[in-house]
Structure formats: C-alpha cells, structure tokens
Design goal:
By secondary structure, the protein is α/β, with parallel strands linked by helices. The protein is globular and about 70 Å long. It has helices at 12-15, 32-44, 56-63, 84-93, 108-120, 135-142, 151-157, 163-171, 213-218, 222-242, 263-273, 295-306, 322-328, 338-341, 348-363, 376-384, 401-417; strands at 24-28, 49-53, 72-76, 99-104, 124-130, 175-184, 190-201, 205-207, 248-253, 281-286, 310-316, 333-336, 367-371, 389-391. The protein has 17 helices and 14 strands. It has an eight-stranded mixed beta barrel with strand order 6-7-9-10-11-12-13-14, surrounded by four helices. The chain has a five-stranded parallel β-sheet with strand order 2-1-3-4-5, with helices on both faces.
Length: 428
C-alpha cells in the first residue's frame, strides 16, 4: 500500500473521508460524562459521526446493523450488568468486522490480557486508553488508524486458494521476493535486509504470505517454496555484492526445511556457486516452531553455523521455550518480536520485556534486531537503550530489489534531515 502523507495532526481515517463516507464510531461507557468527553475529543480529530451508549445490549444491536455498522467501537471494560470482556465475546459471536479500542482505569497487565483476548476472538484491535483519556493519548492512538475495508473487499483479499494452484505457482515461478531494510541504530548505517516472499498471482495481484505459507506447510510444499525463496535471495545478494553494496540478507526458514538433512548442503552449495560469503546470509528460525525431535534441526543448524552462516532466533519471546532454545541452538542473533517493540516507550510491560531481552542478548554475546519500529517514538526509545539493529515501517516498508538501491540514497538524506542520530531525551 502506498504511503499517505497527511497534514499536521490529521489521522489517516480523516484523510480517507474524501474517498469514502465518514467512519462511524460507537462509544460504550456507563459514565455519560466520559461519553461526552470522548465525543468531543473525536470530533476535534475530524471523526464527526460519533454515537455514545451506556448499555452493552444497545451497543450490540447497533453493531449488528447491516446497512451502516460502526467501524470503530471504543468500549469501557468496567461496566455493570455486562462488562466489557463479556461484550467483546458477544461482539465476536455476532461476526463484528470493525476495530476496537479498550478504555479502562485498570493496570497495564490486565489491559494486556484483555488485548490478548480480543485477538483470540479474531477481532481487530487498535489499542487501549487509560482513564482519564487525554487529547494527546487519543490522538497518538488513532494517528496511524485507517478504517477497515468493506466486508466484500476483505473477502476478496482473504480468498482461499487450492493447494494445486499454489503448487503451479511455485512451479511456474510466480513467487517474488521483496526486501525490508535493517539499520544500525547507533550510526544509521544500513546493515542488511530481510527477505519476504509474495505470490504474484496473474489475476488477483500480489498475495501476502499469510494466505499461502500455512497452506504450503500443511501440504508438503514448504520445502519447495523455501528453496525458491533461498535461491533467489542468494542470487540477489550476489548482485548487490557485485554492485558494491555490502548487504547482509536474512531469509526465513521453516521447521520442515530443518527436518530434511540435505538442506544444509543445499544452502552451502548455493552460496558457494554465487560466491556469496556465508556470513552475509542470515537464516531466521521462528523459535515457537523449534520443538519435538530436535536431532535433524540441531545437526543442520550446527553445521550451517560451523560454515559461518548466521543464525537468528525470530519472534523472540512469543514461543514456549525461548531460553531453552538459546542454550541448545547456536544462534548468534536475537530478533525481538514486533508485538513488544511498537509502543514500548509508553508501555511499562513491553518496556520491561524489551529491556530484559536486550540484557539477555548482551549477556550471551548475541546481536539484536528490534522488529516493528513503526514511528519516531519507537526509534528514539530503541536508540536510548542501544538496541542494536532496527527494522520496521518507520525505517522502510518491504520493497523490490531494484527499489532498495534508490532507498539507500533517500535513507542517508533522511538520517541527516530528520536528525535521527541525535540522542533522544533520556538517552545515556
């Protein structure tokens, strides 16, 4: 999706009003004063279609309308009769497709539990607000929010593809790699990129991996898919090296790849054929999938590490055996999951997790990549705590290999013009 440049203080929700109807917002709170306050604050942000109710059953009825349902519901967790947690469950049962914002005076950990519950119900969540709500906190929460797409458009995007069609896509070369840059926080220097796969469907356009990777894993196609991705990524690494760009290329690998002993030789021979030094290739493994019989994965990863390929433990902190895997497998890089990184500067729980992860990595002599820096506040927080490398939309979105070279020039100018290397407030 193309970047949207907005006037100062304007949210993406307001900017899109020229193309679609003004988003409808529903407020649920048993305190009439809070309803009036939120209505006033939302209208100041340009969200003028706001309706407030004090009873959960009335809110459920309004959300169930098929003609003009609210696209954003802000719900108080602490209410008499039906509390916010029960309301969320009933909202999910109705098939609500809009976005939620939680409003509460409860502590951070309880709010995080509520956020996790919302996601478990497969509902969309923007975030939460502490009472009393301030203009600044509301604006900060909604500054990047865009209304969800109509149900018809979402259905098109979430089309289910038969496994036979995916097999043909792999065979006919319809997979494309895009690359998201990683930069060094201390210097702004571009260290490398992460390889992300897309399916260039001839009729449906660009399809994201959440619509086909699980299908490949479930039907025995993931090894073929990954080999296509690795082959093109290493070839691209060679092209960048020949052009004089020393970019480290990270590639995601599946546990199914690590169950096949020839995989280590495949990667080694491919890098050698393209004259790419193994240290320029990072193999990212999602830690929650490193489980079960570890003999083959351990052999493959140990052999690759001995050959000087870099190993990264991806999505750190989201699995069930993070510390055990750090002890067992020779990882030399730790990626802090984006769910902890974005907003860590204003969230005590996330901050504690990020800082603990940084301390652990330093103690083990591992490099760190903080994934999911979405704004300047995330960047400044990570710089203040010497977080190593950073990746996220604030730095760059995934892009074609051709666009990477142009982006390198614009990034250097941006580091200078935006003062990204100036120590943020609170830095040591």
């Amino acid at each position: 999706m193309a970047e949207i440049f907005l006037p100062h203080g304007q949210s993406p929700a307001v900017a899109c009003m020229t193309a679609v109807a003004t988003p409808r917002v529903l407020l649920l709170d048993d305190e009439p004063f809070m309803l009036k306050l939120l209505t006033h604050l939302l209208r100041d942000l340009g969200l003028t279609r706001v309706e407030g109710v004090t009873q959960a059953p009335q809110a459920l009825e309004l959300c169930a309308t098929r003609t003009d349902p609210p696209v954003l519901v802000m719900v108080d967790l602490n209410m008499p009769d039906m509390d916010g947690v029960e309301f969320i469950r009933k909202l999910a049962e109705q098939g609500f497709t809009g976005d939620l914002v939680l409003v509460s005076g409860e502590d951070e950990r309880l709010l995080h539990s509520a956020l996790t519950l919302v996601r478990a119900h497969d509902l969309r969540i923007v975030g939460y607000l502490h009472k009393p709500v301030t203009p600044g906190s509301l604006k900060s929460l909604l500054c990047d929010w865009t209304p969800p797409q109509p149900a018809g458009a979402a259905a098109t995007l979430r089309r289910v593809y038969p496994v036979e069609r995916l097999a043909l896509a792999i065979e006919h070369g319809e997979l494309r790699n895009v690359y998201q840059p990683k930069v060094e926080l201390a210097t702004g220097r571009v260290i490398g990129v992460e390889t992300l796969v897309r399916w260039a469907h001839p009729e449906d356009g660009l399809i994201f991996p959440d619509q086909f990777v699980a299908l490949a894993e479930a039907h025995g196609l993931i090894d073929r898919l990954t080999r296509c991705v690795v082959t093109e990524a290493i070839a691209q690494a060679a092209r960048w090296i020949q052009a004089g760009h020393d970019l480290r290329v990270a590639i995601n690998i599946s546990m199914d790849n690590l169950a096949s002993l020839p995989f280590a030789d495949f990667v080694t021979e491919l890098a050698s054929a393209h004259s790419v030094p193994p240290a320029q290739i990072v193999l990212e493994v999602t830690e929650s999938r490193i489980m079960g019989d570890q003999r083959a994965p351990l052999e493959i990863l140990t052999r690759l590490r001995m050959k000087r390929f870099r190993l990264s433990i991806d999505d750190f902190g989201t699995g069930h055996s993070s510390l055990a895997q750090l002890r067992t497998i020779p990882f030399d890089e730790l990626k802090i999951d984006q769910s902890f990184v974005h907003g860590a500067g204003r969230d005590d729980t996330q901050r504690a997790i990020v800082l603990a992860s940084l301390g652990l990595a330093r103690g083990l002599g591992m490099a760190v990549v903080a994934e999911g820096a979405e704004n300047r506040a995330d960047w400044d927080f990570l710089r203040a705590h010497d977080a190593g490398l950073v990746q996220g939309y604030f730095v760059a979105r995934p892009m074609s290999p051709e666009a990477v070279l142009d982006w390198l020039l614009t990034w250097a100018a941006r580091v200078r013009d935006e003062g990204l290397l100036i120590n943020p407030e609170g830095a040591k």
